[in-house]
Structure formats: structure tokens, C-alpha cells
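tool=predict chain=A
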Amino acid sequence: MLDKAYYYNPGHFEIENDLVFSKNWVFACLLEEVQGNNEFVTLDIAKIPVVIQNFKGELRAFKNVCSHRFNKIQIEDFGRRALTCGYHCWSFDKDGYPSFIPKKELFQEFKNDEFVRNEFCLERFHLEICGNFVFILLSETKEVELKDYLGNHYDKMVEISSHMGKKIHFGGLKHQANWKILIENVLECYHCSVVHKESLYGKLGIGNLPITDIEFSDAHSSCHFPKVARKSDEKKKKILSFLDTRSFIHDSFYHIFIFPNLVVSSTEGASFYVGQLFPLAAGETELKVRFLEPKLNYENVNEALRDILAEESVKLGYEILEEDKFILENIQKGIQKANGTGIINDEEVRIKYFFEKYKSIIKN
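tool=predict ok
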């Protein structure tokens, strides 16, 4: 187990920002969200504002702060516009250099173009892609390529990307809880038949059988949560027969965790979830969520039925998230007053590997 102070001490939170989130590859966005020219995504990692921008097919990641007077350049979570500051219209190219400065002649300090390029270039971050997932690295030195960082989960991320269809929802859910509590919760299903008795277990039959097919690569891990057959399954399958053509079929809840901030899951290949964690403070975390359709031929599919399935997938997803949120926020309140160190069982083995990776980073 981890030291309990790691979950609520503000000073330790700053250490995590430096050692965990600034020095490891972190998930930033889906590739489909920045595929068009001038499309962008913004996020904040370790208190650093970041923008990922498409420059005619080339993706770049920069600190999202104008070098003139420090205004945030891109404001929205997603959008399509040039990398141009909305304060004084400074514009930046794919290398982060100021490509347009209005009334440039008024800046007496500007000796020449080379001076401007060197002194006012945006700070750039490493960016690499794995399937439909875009990762960035804030550290100046890239000690390991993304493919090596992900290990055998690199191929798993490429594969699951190939089965994902259109994004149907993006949203956020703030938790008054430490980010590690959220991670520990999704790495086991020991709680599922209790906390999700009416949702995950009641509606999908998932959460009452031991997890299977556990795989590890460093702190990254994946597994299947097997499904208990329900009487209603055949009727449901008949109504949703168009799903039979989906490219990924499995009788389980398939779950992947990529250290430190990415959770990807597939519910029988019929729907996909991408969870992205952003620690805001020692006791506060923002969870950004994406729900996606499965990849299949929708040419002859009833649009109303397709919309209903998408709506129900999102609705059930939030029901499960809210059930977890209630518990996780109670844990945050209790951990500061708790006696003892806590304990994990054999079914919570993925948490053990998460702890080992985390402690090795903090020790270093």
C-alpha cells in the first residue's frame, strides 16, 4: 500500500506533478479530434497549459501561452482556428515561431528576425501517436520512445483503435478525490457487484466473476471482466442485431490502463469508453470522458435505433461513474483519519503493479 499522506498532502502533489506527470508519456487526445488543418485540442497537465494543433496534417504540441503578453492562445477544449492569440493577433507557425506580428516595427527591441524566432518561440513538447491515441511528453529529454514506454500494450492500443467508431460524447466530471483513488478503483472489479449492483452488474451482468486474461507491461495493464449470461440477452441481441457486424466481439468488459492517466474500455465491443484523468489538487481530480460507437457498417441501420443505443450507452456510463464518484469522495474523506495501512486481495493484483511503478518513481 501507499503512504496515506500521498493522497492528501499538497507538497506531495507537487512532487507528483514533477515526477509522474511531467516525466512520463501522458494521453492527450484522440487522433480523430485533430485530423483537420487548424484543428486543435487544449488541456492542462501538471498545471501546464498545452495545445495540440494540426498544421496541414502535421501535429505539434506547444505550451498554450503567447510569448508576447502571456495570454492563452487557444481557449476552447476543441476547435478549428489558426494558432493565433486573441489578444494582439500574434500568430505562430508549426515550429512555434511568431509568423505574424501586427505593427512589428513598433517593437524597438526586435533586432532582427532571428532574434524574434529565438526569443519568442513557443515551448514545444514531444508528441507521438499510437493508433487513435495522441500522447505527449513534457520533459525536455525523451528518454524512451512511446512504443517502448507502452511495451506490449502498444499493439493492444493500436488494435482497440481499429475497432472504435465515431465519438458520440465528450464530457467532464470533477471528483473531490485524489487521482490515485480513481485509478485504484478501475483496476479492480471486487466492488462491482456491490457498488454497481443495478448498473454494471444488474444491466450487463458484469462484475461477479473473477477477472481473466490479465497482462502487464510495467505499470500498464489490461484484463477482461467476464459477463454472466442473462435471460434478457437473447431479446437484446435480436433488437440490436446490426451489432453482429461489429469488428470486435467479446463476452466481457475489456479494460486497459495506461500509466498514468488513461483508461480505455470496451463493453462487448458494442461501445467504447476513454477516461482521461487530470489531477487538479491533492484532493481534486477532473475526469474527462469520451464515449465512442463500435466500428461497423451503418449503411442499412435504422438511425433512430443507432441514436437510442448511443444515448443509452452514455446514460449507463454516467450512472456507473456517478456511483463510483460517491464512493471515491468518501474514501478521500476517510483516508486522512484512517488507522492502519489498508490491504488488497488477489483479485486486486493490478493495483499492486500500479503501486510498484508509482513507488519506484517517487523513490527516484
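The chain is about 30% helix and 30% strand. The longest strand covers residues 164-175.
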